[in-house]
Amino acid sequence: MSTLAADRIDRLGDLARAAAREGETERARSYVRRARRVAERHRLDLPTRLKRFSCDDCDRYLIPGRNARVRTRNGHITITCDCGSHARYPYR
Ligand SMILES: [Zn+2]
C-alpha cells in the first residue's frame, strides 16, 4: 500500500470538487476518473467523501443542489445524480 497514492487520490478529489464548484463539469469528471484509476491500480478505497460525491455511472463530481439531489429517509441518505443514477448510504 502506498501512502503516496493515497495522497494523490486525496488531491485529485480536492481538484475535482473545486472544478465542479466552478461549473467545470468535464474537468471535474476527468479528475474523478484519474482518482479512480489510481485507487484501482493501488487497490485502495476511494476516500469516503469522494466515493459519495462522485457518480458511479458517469463519474460526475456531485454538488448537491447543482447536479445532484440529496434525500434523507429512514436512516439512509440517497444521492441522485443528474444522469439518473442514485446511491444510498446509511446515515449517522
Ligand atoms: Zn451520473
Automatic annotation (TrEMBL):
Its cofactor is Zn(2+). It comes from the Archaea. Keywords: Cytoplasm, Endonuclease, Hydrolase, Metal-binding, Nuclease, tRNA processing, Zinc. Its EC number is 3.1.26.5. It is found in: Cytoplasm. Binds 1 zinc ion per subunit. GO terms for molecular function: ribonuclease P activity; zinc ion binding. It holds the Pfam family Rpr2. Its main location: cytoplasm. It catalyses: Endonucleolytic cleavage of RNA, removing 5'-extranucleotides from tRNA precursor. Gene3D superfamilies: 6.20.50.20, Immunoglobulin FC, subunit C. Zn(2+) binds at C55, C58, C81, C83. GO terms for cellular component: cytoplasm; ribonuclease P complex. One of its GO terms (biological process) is tRNA 5'-leader removal. Belongs to the eukaryotic/archaeal RNase P protein component 4 family. Part of ribonuclease P, a protein complex that generates mature tRNA molecules by cleaving their 5'-ends. Consists of a catalytic RNA component and at least 4-5 protein subunits. This is Ribonuclease P protein component 4. It comes from Halosegnis longus. The gene is rnp4.
